[in-house]
Design brief:
26% strand; elongated; alpha+beta; 14 helices
Amino acid sequence: MNVHISGELAPEIEDSPVPYVLLKGEFSPPVVEASNRAFRELLGVDSTPSGQTFNDLKITLRRQDKRTGNIETWGPQASRRGSGGGSAVSTRHIPSPAEALWRHGEEVRSHQVLRGEVWTADLVHSEGSWGIVQAVIAPLATSPGASQRWVVQFLPLTGFDEAFGYAAPAAERALDALSQISELLSAESQTSPLAEISRILEATFPVDWVGFFLEGKGLEYSETIRPPARPRHRGDYRSRDVDGSGAVDPVLQVLVGKRIDPVLLPCGFDAEESTRTRAFMDHLDDVWDVHGFTPRGPLIIQAILGRSGVLGAIVMACPETNELGEPFEVPDLGTESLKVLSAVSRRIGTTLDNARLYKHEHELAEALQQSMLPTQVDVAGLDVWTYYAPSNEHARVGGDWYDILYVDEQTVGVVVGDVVGHDLEAAAAMGQLRSITRSYAFDRVSASKVIERVDRLVDGLDIPRQASMVYGRLRESKSRGTWQLEYARAGHLPPILVRDGEAILLDDAGGGLIGFLPRPRSSATIRLRPGDVVLFYTDGLIERRDRSMQAGVKELQEFAQTVPQCAADQWGELLLRALADAPEDDVALVVVRIPVRDELSVQGMDLARSYRATFPGDPSSVARARHVIMRLCDEWDKPHTTFAELVMSELAANAVLHGYGQFALRVYDLGEDLRIEVEDQNPIGPIRMDGHGDRYGGYGVKIVDRLANWGWSPKGAGKVVWAHVPVTQERGAPEVR
């Protein structure tokens, strides 16, 4: 649409679905000079009512003065003197061109929203029906001595009506965009919210491309909300432009928080070498190459502020010129768009801050939990395997626990428990219960007495979470080789005894949850024979949303009856593969097996060897995982370990850096190869990078590429990365760059 409108409307205005009318003359009142088809259809007339006024057409323009509350009507300015003393109705003139020059709003398809005064218009259709719409009135600049002219645009009150193709006013569209963005940021299931927000802003703002860059070692492109590192401050940077004007290194000014308003960078800004701006522009070029985008005009950079510093930036690639053909500037985004941009940056900053606090809380809970859980144990005279993993859906923090206690030379205690919840409070309650149970178990009393004493103490401590547990006390007989199991349960699922291919529920000695109405408890005793297997577990192993708990226990029994005689660790692996591949809750599992005198004569021991463990998301875990691989290769008689060590180091390092907390390790003996699996909670797969001064990483993937066949797949809320590494013969030494 052209600013200079002649007596005849331009073709694009004539064909627009938005009603337009051109008025001419002073307030005496002005008359209709031209109108488009949509306006004529609005009134139900066949031709432009040239020479008629709005009064003739039964169109009344009115609005309420926000200051006085009076209802104003549009009419001749002179009539304001005759409005009558004390009248609640007055008239108001449309501002002259000197008061408010008309500029176009953002383009919506083939029509636009004017910027001018907004009135409410009462209309009467030629057939007698009555309606209300909005009228946006903008004065047109005229030559000296010429009559005043106005252009009037009619819009529905709702601001947007898809049935008629009307364009929503900028404020309405901005509020709608902000509402969508807020919903995206609050949706836990959204894996790439920043990518979706970019698309919303591109559709709302008069820009060509929008991207989000989060602070790491410089600004790094991101489509996901990831917990940021500590916000950087001015003292973290070394540059001569930190306290300067920003002309040398404007991106640095954004990073240190000196420029929090939108910053405009001209197209092709030639930043000096060794500046943050040069490094960022190079990174931006790489991102645009991936997206297949070519910029036309300047960049606008808006800082994303957190509670204590800058967490990133919103970057917008703008067109070369605005709608008037002038060089694009920040104000050309529009007042409403700038408000939305500021609000979006604040909300993303708050979301990033919350993500960092959430990560910190769960790292604390995870560290607390890991410090309380025993590692894989060796028990003289018993074959024991233990496992624990919090649910993927609950940030790797839970209230389940297990414990193996050496009460004396002939007595071993086994505890499995479950505290309700998946947060720091649940982990703390779990720690209290574990310590309490340990202290009473070493008193060498019966299983029922242990739980009774735990009951009484927990009742006095007022622990705010419900909890269940089962305590088993194993005593070796004097003849050796046989054991007696005494157990008691407090609201917990019954252990399962597997003997001669039959799975038996040990469902005696039941009772209520821990700490509720302390009462006498009972114990049950059973003698175990060589080859017997006892399973202690929490509900996460069998609980599913689409079936009852009883059905889950039955499935566990049926599967246990199909497992051949094998070692406890192979029992555990088979159970986890069959029942806990995608658990919906925390899983704690203890497998206790009474060894057979001549293990080598037992059939079924040739199952594939495997190992499973979990590690905290801490740098020290990389070395621990590497040592695990070295030990396994030694135990499994694998002569060549170099490649396996390197691959393990890279996969573990990636899990620590990008995996959101604890990660799980699984190793399988495939004969000539080892299969190494690392599972973490970041759903984004490994990314290859070429390396750059303003970012790091990507090289580990190249190393794994050279040393192994590998891949990855989504799993639960995260992913699993796997690699097959040769360990029986060395290949040619790979060239790693």
